[in-house]
Prior knowledge:
The chain is mainly beta.
Amino acid sequence: MEKLKLQFRTEFFNITNTPSFFIPNNQNDHATTNQVPTADLIAAGTVSPAFGQVVVTNPNYTPSEIQFVLKLLF
């Protein structure tokens, strides 16, 4: 007679969905990041509206994930 076992498991990853914000090394190359205004930009009046804001998440960011596992042991 064979014994059968059924196992059910639930796994949660990043359950709070906490973002990981990202500031590139060279901030002036990316249009949506925390651009530091230079004297030329201030004089021209073209300071980025994104100044002082970090709006890009880390490229390695993983959103919340739920995994269900059903395993049959025999």
